[in-house]
Specification:
This protein has 118 residues and is mainly alpha-helical. It has one domain. The chain contains seven helices and no strands. Helix 3 crosses helix 6. The longest helix has 29 residues.
Length: 118
């Protein structure tokens, strides 16, 4: 289990404790939204990382954008930065994160975060 999964599990446990303690529904909803976002980032990172393991062009684009070597941590940072730059457009941010094509952004050389000025 990596540090990202540990963070998500800790958040799951915190939410469960808050539910048992009948904490504020608003607080629980906010933490559940945060968990959905973290899970979407992690799942998107995992999918992109696996895709890039077999795609030298994707790795080359990653390096050309000065994002470093193709490591899970570097890919996570990239996906996180892309996710922060996404406009939810009235939709659930986690859904937008999951739907974004990170590979296409890398191959085009125009990541969402660069387009947003980030």
């Amino acid at each position: 289990m990596d540090e990202y999964q540990v963070e998500m599990n800790d958040l799951r446990h915190r939410i469960a404790r808050l539910k048992l303690d009948r904490a504020s529904a608003v607080l629980i909803e906010e933490l559940e939204a945060q968990l959905r976002i973290l899970k979407a980032i992690y799942d998107s990172t995992s999918a992109l990382f696996v895709a890039g393991e077999g795609d030298r062009r994707l790795q080359a684009s990653f390096r050309e954008l000065d994002l470093g070597n193709w490591t899970f941590e570097n890919v996570y940072f990239y996906v996180y930065e892309e996710a922060v730059a996404l406009d939810p457009e009235g939709h659930d941010l986690a859904s937008r994160i999951e739907a974004h094509d990170y590979g296409a952004s890398l191959r085009s050389g125009t990541p969402q975060s660069a387009a947003a000025g980030g």
